[in-house]
Specification:
By secondary structure, the chain is α/β, with parallel strands linked by helices. The protein has a single domain, classed as Aldolase class I (TIM Barrel), CATH 3.20.20.70. The chain contains twelve helices and eight strands. It is globular. About 2% of the residues have low confidence.
Length: 323
């Protein structure tokens, strides 16, 4: 397993090859995906969610995930992650050799049925089988297993989601054997106050070492504000998508993962080390534009450029405006 945090303050996990591609009509070629992943790793990205092990008839955009995992495993110092919807997906992901698997459990049961076609109880049964499978493997072959707390701040189907319910399910997932729970604002409903309150309550219930990451959407423009709130309270892992690609097909209007390029600049300008070279990252974006010419890309920093005289933390600077 890669030592992801050895010389950085914050880990940025790129989810574009999964969350981004599953949400658009265009189908990126396997060759283009390989080039994307290789280039992002070369820019300093240490964890990439390269796909999802779902039936190709449901998400043809991700039909080549096993092939992409095999390629990504050849890249040194890259943690290869994938999303799985059930036991079969986890089994396929493990056979492919992923380092980390994430199963999304929607706190809103209506969303769970729409997204996974399963009730909470059915999802718990799948998780139990996955945990038992992982335990049966040699220790050096066991992937990190994260249970994602999706629609944690609200649901486009049910509306309000009770915070106590999120905490209760987080506790259950850890007791069942998940290595970690991840917090996900699937619908882009969260604000900074909610973020801090939710993290505090979950940490009180399961411990800060059992929830270190958050998946944010920028649907209502709160994405980077929620990053700051998460950072201030002590969270160290953030999901983002190159060019802001992504969303959830079963959460109408929830498009817009936070933009990797803008996130890297925000943190770097504050003096927070991510290990990512912004210039190289922006170069990867041009590859994305060529590979997906029909898709709109987002982000302020790639459009405006870096400030005059800017020196990256990753290149030995101390961040913009830090004396």
């Amino acid at each position: 397993m890669v030592d992801l945090m050895s010389d950085i303050d914050v880990l940025i996990s790129e989810v574009g090859p999964r969350d981004g591609l599953q949400s658009i009509e265009s189908i990126m070629t396997s060759e283009a995906k390989r080039d994307w992943i290789k280039a992002e790793s070369a820019a300093g990205v240490r964890e990439i969610e390269v796909g999802s092990f779902v039936p190709p008839k449901i998400l043809p955009q991700l039909a080549d995930t096993a092939e992409i995992v095999s390629f990504a495993n050849s890249i040194p110092n890259l943690q290869v992650a994938a999303l799985v919807p059930n036991f079969k997906g986890a089994e396929n992901a493990i056979n492919a050799g992923v380092d980390k698997i994430t199963l999304p459990l929607s706190i809103s049961e209506s969303h769970s049925i729409a997204n996974l076609r399963k009730t909470h109880q059915q999802v718990f049964e799948e998780i139990d089988k996955i945990v038992n499978l992982i335990i049966s493997l040699p220790k050096d072959k066991r992937p990190h297993f994260e249970g994602s707390l999706s629609t944690a701040f609200g649901c486009t189907i049910e509306g309000k989601v009770e915070q106590k319910k999120v905490v209760r399910i987080a506790e259950k997932l850890i007791k069942m054997g998940c290595d970690e729970v991840g917090l996900a604002d699937t619908t882009g409903y969260a604000n900074p106050y909610q973020i801090k309150s939710m993290i505090n309550d979950i940490w009180s219930a399961v411990g800060s070492d059992k929830m270190m990451g958050i998946h944010l959407h920028n649907t209502r423009g709160q994405g980077l504000a929620n990053v700051i709130a998460s950072l201030e309270i002590g969270l160290t892992t953030f999901d983002s998508s190159l060019g802001g690609l992504g969303g959830c097909p079963f959460a109408p209007g929830a498009s817009g993962n936070i933009v990797t390029e803008d996130l890297v600049f925000l943190l770097d300008s504050m003096g927070v080390k991510t290990g990512i070279d912004i210039d190289k990252l922006i170069e990867v974006r041009s590859h994305l534009s060529k590979s997906l010419p029909k898709e709109e890309l987002y982000g302020f920093v790639p459009e405006s450029g870096l400030p005059k005289g800017y020196i990256q933390v990753n290149s030995g600077g101390r961040g913009w405006g830090i004396n």
